Amino acid sequence: MTLIKSISGIRGTIGGNVGENLTPIDAVKFASAYGIWLKQQRDKDNHKVVVGRDARISGEMIQNLVMNTLVGLGIDVIDAGLSTTPTVEIAVPMEHADGGIILTASHNPKQWNALKLLNAKGEFLDAIEGAKILDIAESDAMTFVDVDNLGKITKNQAYIDLHIDEVLNLPLVNAKNIEKARFKVVVDGVNSTGGIAIPLLLERLGVEVIKLHCEPNGHFPHNPEPLKEHLGDLSDEVKKHKANFGIVVDPDVDRLAFMDENGEMFGEEYTLVACADYVLSKTPGNTVSNMSSTRALRDITEKHGGTYEASAVGEVNVVKLMKKNKVVIGGEGNGGIIYPDSHYGRDALVGVALFLSLLAEKDMSVSALRKTYPSYFMGKKKIQLTPNLNVDAILKTIEERYQNEQLTTIDGVKIDFSESWVHLRKSNTEPIIRIYTEAKSQEAANTLADKFIAEIGSIAGI
């Protein structure tokens, strides 16, 4: 059982001991710290925060604790109820709110939950802001308002519909072409809020929708990370219904993956590649993704005359570099699309609309579309951390061993070889070391990952 305080928010497992897990007391403590920090940012009489959640089982409990803590600080709350991470992100500026909180542990299993914290722009806090909140949480300097100054809670559960309106109004979303294409699509909503939002978007676009695991009850039918090994049901349904393709999202709907008409994965790394190909064909410019993402985005960007650059892992790092480089599209290779013309956050709804626009324009199957892109294969493995593992020392040893290769050390250690790369880093969201590799074949990518797992084991004596 674990409590992780990082750039990705306050994340932990439900139950257990205070300070070691995400208990009710920890939820109140960190919500209090966020509220106090928020009030320090803008000196005014009234503050407002948008709060939404995914459908995981602990969501209602954590949301009630968080909202009423903010009320105790004199902060008004907009209760967005069952929502998505990108929906809350766009709701914050729509409400002219001072911030937002999304209660979701993203792709983590059902025993996890988290407080993901937003600023007044509806964007994730950076490391400096996060550190200030952690300092407040560990101090005794928490003062609440008296009874006459309590905040109030207002329900507004229209934001998924408003979010869909915003997506459909994007100039590059070609709703007419999509409707003419008469697509049939299977949607795996992993029994969370994607089961609400994605079918609604598709129906507005004239797409025939077959729902799979779209009941938002929080009982995830499979591991909620949208990877091939978890998606046998989706593959079967796509083939059974002779669908054009399948869509799967994670519980909070900021990650997006596609499955082709044969029930084979399009590749979550290629979600961003395809959407970028479409956007760059209409609005040439630069792109950004994180260091653990495929080289294919670089190739597609350069094909369209743009420049590609990689950031450290973490959405806030990607967004920071995107703004600096004035990119037209960016994101993360885990299926996270960030399209600045909409907002600076990973958004599966935007990704679906852009992908459908591309597919309708190309008038080809999803499998044929995949063959038009450079072919790279990725391995994603991990090593469970134990208290005796010194991750920093292990990574320093790796860095020294490979000092004659092309190294990047802004986030763990990434080693670029001529036809492959490996990225080793400590996760922001789980107690693991992530080992990401990419090569010209799946076998080569897996072999490279296994080589470094063995090397880390040797260094650590495990």
UniProtKB/TrEMBL annotation:
Q: Which GO terms describe its cellular component?
A: cytosol
Q: Where would I find the Alpha-D-phosphohexomutase C-terminal domain in this sequence? A: 395-453
Top-rank taxon, per record: Bacteria
Coiled-coil segments on the chain, per record: none
**GO MF terms held by the record:** magnesium ion binding; phosphoglucosamine mutase activity; phosphomannomutase activity
What InterPro entries does this protein's entry cite?
A-D-PHexomutase_a/b/a-I (IPR005844), A-D-PHexomutase_a/b/a-I/II/III (IPR016055), A-D-PHexomutase_a/b/a-II (IPR005845), A-D-PHexomutase_a/b/a-III (IPR005846), A-D-PHexomutase_C (IPR005843), A-D-PHexomutase_C_sf (IPR036900), A-D-PHexomutase_CS (IPR016066), Alpha-D-phosphohexomutase_SF (IPR005841)
Q: Which GO terms describe its biological process?
A: carbohydrate metabolic process; peptidoglycan biosynthetic process; UDP-N-acetylglucosamine biosynthetic process
The cofactor named in the record is: Mg(2+)
Alpha-D-phosphohexomutase alpha/beta/alpha domain: which residues? 8-139, 172-263, 270-373
> Which controlled-vocabulary keywords does the entry list?
Isomerase, Magnesium, Metal-binding, Phosphoprotein
PANTHER family on file:
PHOSPHOGLUCOMUTASE (ALPHA-D-GLUCOSE-1,6-BISPHOSPHATE-DEPENDENT), PHOSPHOHEXOSE MUTASE
**Sequence similarity:** Belongs to the phosphohexose mutase family.
What is the name of the protein in this document?
Phosphoglucosamine mutase
Organism for this UniProt entry: Pseudalgibacter alginicilyticus
